[in-house]
Specification:
This protein has 168 residues and is an alpha+beta fold. Helix content is 34%, strand content 30%.
């Protein structure tokens, strides 16, 4: 199942996935250890390996690793949409087989399925909004910068395998 949400608060998103009060991190789950940068945009920015707090937070704020600021300047304020939160969840039975049954093949299959879905999203849905002389158009980019986190618990502490890519 896929759930989507627009990220509206940069601080909350950063704290939720990487902060000290993160229920995933406190439970010593797969989330931080199994995080990774993903996407053609991430490759172009030189992002690879585990997701680090500082870079993740800066990107949510619209600041690229080279210091370039994304967004639209209106007066003295920059307007920037931090990104989107996608959550890919598997059925409870799959979570139980993978996590309690210890079947690494199922965990690997979940990761491959998530990557395949993200590839299709990046290829077909990644767009930039470009406004020129008052006319707005959308252009396919084929580029996403994604911080991908694999988690193994629900908020209630039950086994619940899900991947939460944060993309821009």
């Amino acid at each position: 199942m896929l759930s989507t949400q627009t990220i509206k608060n940069t601080g909350q998103a950063s704290h939720y996935f990487l902060g000290h009060d993160n229920y995933y991190k406190e439970e010593q789950t797969l989330g931080q250890e199994r995080s990774q940068w993903w996407g053609k945009g991430a490759d172009r920015l030189g992002l690879s390996g585990h997701v680090d707090t500082q870079t993740f937070t800066q990107l949510l704020r619209g600041t690229l690793p080279d210091g370039q600021q994304l967004g639209k300047q209106i007066g003295d304020k920059n307007h920037h949409r931090p990104g989107f939160d996608l959550t890919f969840s598997v059925p409870k039975s799959v979570s139980l087989v993978a996590l309690l049954g210890g079947d690494a093949r199922v965990l690997s299959a979940v990761e491959r399925a998530t990557d395949k879905a993200l590839q299709l999203i990046e290829r077909d849905l990644a767009k930039a909004r470009i406004t020129n002389q008052g006319k707005t158009a959308y252009q396919k980019t084929g580029n996403l910068v994604i911080a991908k986190f694999l988690h193994d618990l629900s908020r209630e502490g039950d086994p619940q395998l899900h991947t939460t890519p944060q993309g821009h």
